[in-house]
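Office hours follow-up: a student asked to see two folded examples consecutively, so here they are.
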Amino acid sequence: MTSLPARAGRRCHNALNPLHSTVYFSPDFAKELAGVGIEDSSAAYFAGRGAAMGAVGAGVITATFYNFNHDLVARHVPEVWRTASPETVLAARLRAADSTLRRLLGAEAVGSDEMAEAAGLALRAAEACTRHARPLYAAHADLPVPDQPHLAYWHAATLLREHRGDGHLTALLAAGLDPLEALVSHTATGKGMSPRWAVTTRGWTRTDWEAAAGRLRERGLLDGEGELTEAGTALRADLEDATDRLDAAPYTHLGAEGTERLTELGRGFLAAALGAGAFPADLTGK
């Protein structure tokens, strides 16, 4: 097997992960979760992403999601499981994924040979994912693979996303970044969630945000204007490199040619979704 080009796995992740994430921003998701009694957007997200782990408590959600304020999580979990069981939530989430992908991509793309090919490649990559120390991945790996190719592709993208995400948390801990410091420093790259979205959806306040920025400045990672210093830029680059190393197995297993093809297919589907307005315009940036 030929070695992968540098950052090939990261490029593939960057093509697959956003399409997975469209579901959580979709009106279809809100509608499906409201249909089972979960109307609050935060409760819906905690339940929708966490249901694969079962009816877990607030501590497990906070630990595995990492950058949410625990007080926000505890406001909804475990109460949300009294409204709808994890099994009910998972079924609603899959219905939302179905309708979201059909709406964003169109019937032709959903039923295409390319979609079936992408699903096969992504599932093959996921064969090499590992469960140890990866709770969100491991929980999703226990779920059945949907029969329809577009849902199998979304499921595989979920596996690959959570596998990389679990490894990324290991890298964040090693770098000494707490949940909000991770958000602030990522936003400072210009690629992360905007401060407004981070504060309103993650349960933090502007005071919390400024305190985290102050801690980063004390470490020499952020300057007075809120921009990354040379050391901060290097730290964020090291974080991504460490995450790449922890996430190499799926793409090494798929091989260079398969990874390149999956990236190509994923980018095509993602471009269509973005063109259909899958995300809020102000979601990312400084």
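And the second, which I mentioned at the end of office hours:
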Amino acid sequence: MGILVRLLELGNEQVYVDCGAAAPFFSPVRFETDVNHASSFGADKILIRALPREHGRYVYSRCVNGEPSGEPWEFNANSSSELDDFQPLIEGANKPGASFMTFLHCQLWQLGKSRSVSLVNNSFGIRSADGGLVKRKLRTVEDIEQVLSEEFGLPRLPVRSAIEILHELGVDILMLIRCKTLTCTCSNRS
């Protein structure tokens, strides 16, 4: 699904504005008139290109460090849908076991700091606009809360509730750290 809108200030031009994608979109993508436009940040690049000889059809692709990331997908700019058309997809995406219901994920682009921050379960990363990446493992729920408060500016996010729900669904986002810590502790004793 691509979120497209028509902007009167651009002569009613249709633009891509999918703010929900974890992708570097910082302004509307003028895919109809700027056919060589690429949205990028550091090593992350998004391309939206017209499909040859298929009027109104476009392909969305993503590359990180010059390598494809995820599967390219197509959309038809001449087709529209209503919110009700997506109800089965929305319901399926919110069921236990669905892709985005099995991990903790927060991402924020901080253009003023020339970086993006990302949290996936207990892995925290800071990617700079020049392509640098710093990653670290968070060992406790308190560490996760602190990162979300200080780095993301989200001090009231219900982190503990989310982690408890994931645990009830069989996903322990801190388990790997606990296992590694136990291994280290046991190794130190011998």
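Two things to take away from it. DSSP finds four helices and eleven strands in the chain. Residues 177-190 have pLDDT under 50 and may be disordered.
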